[in-house]
Amino acid sequence: MTNASRRRLLGKGLLGALAARSGLGATDLRAAPAATSVAEVRPRHLVFPRDAGAHPEFKTEWWYITGWLGQPEASHGFQITFFRSRVDGTQGMQSRLAARQLLFAHAAITDVQGKRMWHDQRIARWSGETPGQNPADNASASVLDTGVVLHDWSLLREGSDLRARVTAEDFSMDLRFGTTQAVLLQGQQGLSRKGPDTRQSSYYYSLPQLKASGVLTLQGTPAKADTGTAWLDHEWSEEMLAGGAVGWDWMGINLFDGSALTAFRLRDNRGNAIWDGGSFRSGVTQYTFSQGEVIFKPVRFWQSPLSQARYPVEWVVRTPADFYTVKAVVDNQELDSRNSTGAIYWEGLCEVWDSNNHRVGRGYLEMTGYASALRLQG
């Protein structure tokens, strides 16, 4: 997608621009019967590899991989995210050109030594049909296993591994991820509560301590093949944000001893927690945090020259596992995704110290809703 195309998308709005690309005018979208919810979030047993694939009957979904290359010290952090959003206004359309689903993708690389981040984004329509059946589709997602393709970006299952390929204007990634631990089911056996209403829940699992390997290219200069550690989150829901929520703070941390830590909170416009949660797993023992057990306390802030948003880039996070100090490796890891998901947010590599001031892990910190209230697209 060219820069001019991205600006047109921003000016028209996502839905209208994609409809125009497909030959459908705004009147066509308004005339389409509104779809009612076709999925209910309730406790159920997640089955793999099926639940590693897409769930187009649900409103929102994402596959999210973060990590670093360079052992023992991180030389580069990376983030690759594929989003899917069901478009309710087009579900009743019969045309094979109807954009029943939108697919977005974000990717970023953090150069730790150079203290700089590169990022890019993609957006395309998907009819919701089986990949390969509709030649009008610019992207697709398999419902059988992990298999998301958006133009020349992809996240695919290859044997027992996952492989991510991204080609952006200033960088590229070709990374492979090998599983070293069992699936971590977040919440109650994979059903993660996100608000006071039980409908504000998502299906959510993680794959921590992934073995990462591959090559990053920055501005045409390939970095040497390297290894590292990664984390995958896969989450899908029908209604996730509680009323009054403007954003969230989240972290997924691979601890150096092999443990895995997740902590999150959803915030209102005063910075108060509406809901919180997470988990800690060490070996085969997992503890799921109850609401009220996770407290985020900001320690140090950084103000973005782009958005003027003021982000906490150092936190003390209290969990039932320990008190952790979480510090951004590079302050400026803000992503401007207004040309795809419509949001500006902070997401970047961080390091973690325990209550004894020992550095114990590394992972990614995500903070949304600081530049403006978050609105999930669809």
Secondary structure layout:
Blueprint: H1 3-12, H2 14-21, H3 26-31, E1 60-69, E2 76-86, E3 101-111, E4 116-126, E5 139-141, E6 147-150, E7 153-158, E8 161-167, E9 171-178, E10 184-185, E11 191-193, E12 201-218, E13 221-222, E14 226-239, E15 247-255, E16 260-267, E17 273-282, E18 285-289, E19 295-303, E20 310-318, E21 323-328, E22 334-337, E23 343-353, E24 359-367
Antiparallel strand pairs: 1-2, 1-14, 2-3, 3-4, 5-6, 6-7, 7-8, 8-9, 9-12, 10-12, 11-12, 12-13, 12-14, 15-16, 15-24, 16-17, 17-18, 19-20, 20-21, 21-23, 22-23, 23-24
Helix pairs in contact: 1-2
Query: What portion of residues belong to β-strands?
Result: over 45%
The CATH top-level class label:
Mainly Beta
Number of helices: 3
Q: H/E series, N to C?
A: HHHEEEEEEEEEEEEEEEEEEEEEEEE
Q: Please tell me the total number of domains.
A: 1
Mean pLDDT: 87
Q: Level of helix content? A: under 10%
Instruction: Report on the biggest sheet.
Output: 14 strands, antiparallel
What distance separates the N and C termini?
21 Å
Q: Which value, in Å, is the CA radius of gyration? A: 20 Å
Number of E-type strands? 24
Structural class: mainly beta
